[in-house]
Design goal:
The protein is α/β, with parallel strands linked by helices. Helix content is 26%, strand content 27%.
């Protein structure tokens, strides 16, 4: 169920993300929790399995050309697979200041919902099919949604672009 906050303590980022979630028409529930120091703490605070936490990572494809990659908890981008999907030889992750400039969100709060620009979204193949928790524009704020709804609302391309964290180096 959608929840919009009129709380004066709500950050501009959270308001923007929740407004975009509401406008998407998908069912979602906002969870607010205090600071967390790990994936396990975030999952416990949100009441989901760690693998249901979805990180929104900003990837630079070229000059003023970025995209979001939705990465489930416990997984990391498989760079060769992502480059092959996108048909490019080079990708990089911008520094925190650049990521904020191109999304309007600080690192740790980034979400495609309400981003300053509607960059393309790649959702890892593990995102659809179950309930997930995605950041909602502020530290300690998340939206719980069904992965299928998330992919549809964002017009995301679904592909196998991650590998388990700590997998042998096959990336570059």
């Amino acid at each position: 169920m959608a929840q919009q906050s009129d709380d004066p303590g709500t950050s501009e980022g959270e308001r923007r993300a929740v407004a975009a979630l509401t406008a998407s028409g998908i069912p979602f529930e906002v969870t607010r929790h205090g600071p967390v120091r790990s994936l396990a703490e975030a999952a416990a605070a949100r009441g989901v399995d760690p693998s249901a936490i979805v990180k929104s990572l900003v990837v630079r494809r070229g000059e003023d050309d970025y995209l979001f990659v939705l990465v489930p908890g416990g997984r990391t981008i498989a760079w060769p697979q992502l480059r092959a999907l996108l048909g490019v030889t080079r990708l990089s992750m911008p520094d925190a200041a650049t990521a904020k400039d191109v999304t309007g969100y600080e690192r740790g709060t980034i979400t495609p919902f309400g981003s300053l620009r509607a960059w393309p979204v790649i959702a890892d193949a593990h995102v659809p099919g179950s309930t997930v928790s995605i950041g909602a524009g502020a530290h300690g704020v998340a939206a719980t949604v069904h992965g299928d709804d998330l992919v549809r609302a964002l017009g995301a391309t679904v592909a196998d672009v991650t590998e388990p964290e700590g997998a042998p180096e096959g990336r570059s």
